[in-house]
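B., you asked whether I could sanity-check this one before it goes into the benchmark set. Here's the sequence:
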Amino acid sequence: YQIQDCVPYEKSIRVDVEHGGTNDYPGADYACTAYWYQEAPSHDWSPIDPAQLSPAKWAAEHVVEAEGLTWGAGAEVRDDSGLKSEASGGKLAAIRGEKVSMRVSAPGAGAYDLKLTELLAPESPLSVMVGLPDGTSLPVQLDAKTDLTKGGHADLSLQAKLAAGMNTITLTVEPGKTLLLDYLKIKPSPYQNAIEGEKMKILDSKDGEAKTQDMASYSGVWSGDSQFWLVGKKAGAEATLEMPVATAGRYNLIVYLTGAKDYAIVQTLVDGKEIGGTVDCYAEKVTAIGRKLLGPIELTPGAHRLTLRAVEKNAKGSNYLIGLDAVALEPLH
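And here's what the prediction gave me:
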C-alpha cells in the first residue's frame, strides 16, 4: 500500500508492481487499483449503466495475440472460461494435433527471438515441437518441474531465421495434450550463432542456486528477455551447463553476460579448461554487458561442459551472482 506519500497526477497514472527474482510464489496474482477522492460534488453524476461495470480484460503490451493469427486445421480460437488464469484480451488459441500451422509476419529477413506465451492447465504439454520456415524442427520445453495444476502463464522461447513478410511456423503437440497459446512476441535477435543461456541444460552447480531469471522489466537488451542466473553465495561458486556443438572445428567462444552491483568477476571454462581471462561483471545498475570474446577454441561434435565460476568480487561489489544471456560459437575458417 502506498500510504506514506501522496502521488499527484492530473489526467492519468501508471502504477507498476516491482516483483523481484527471489522468493517467487508460483501462481501469485498482482494488480493495482488507484482511488480518486473528490472534496465536493461538482455536478450531478449520471447513473451508471450496470452493463458498463463488467471488468475490463487485461491485455499484454507489444505482443501479437494468438487469436489474431492465421491458423491452419487443428487450432481453435476460444475464450478463457474454465481456466484458472485470464488470457490477454480474454481469448486464446487452443492447439491440438500434429503440425498445426500459424502465419507470422517479420519486417525483414534475419534471426528473430520468438517467445510463445501459453496459459497453463492440466492438459498443457511440457514440450512442443516447432517447425521453422527453413525446414528445421526443434523441441521447445518448459521446466519439467512446472506445476500445471496451478495455472498461470509460461514461455516457450526459441530463435528462428525468418524471411521478410509472412512466414509459416508449425506446432506439434503430443496426443492428448492441448497448447493454450495466449500471445507471442517477435523481435530481431541481438546475437548470431548463439545458444540461449536459459535454454542450456544445467549439469551441476556449487555454492549457489542455478535458475532462469526474467529480464523483461530491466532496461537493456537480453535475448529472449531472460537469462541463466547463478545466485552465488561465496567466492568459488560455479555452475556447469551443457553446450552442444554440431560440427567439429575451431571457434571463437563469445559470452554475453549481465552486470550489476552484486555480480561477480567471472572465469569461463570449457571441459574444465580456462578459456580467456576473467570478466568483471560489476556495474552500477543492472546492465547487459554485451559481447565478450574469450578466444579461439577447438571443439569436437557433441555435448561439452561450459562452466561459469565466480572467482571473486569487485572491491565495490556486494555478492557473487552470475548472469549469462547467451553463448556464441563463431566458426574460424
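One thing to flag: Residues 54 and 90 are 13 Å apart (CA to CA). Otherwise nothing jumped out at me.
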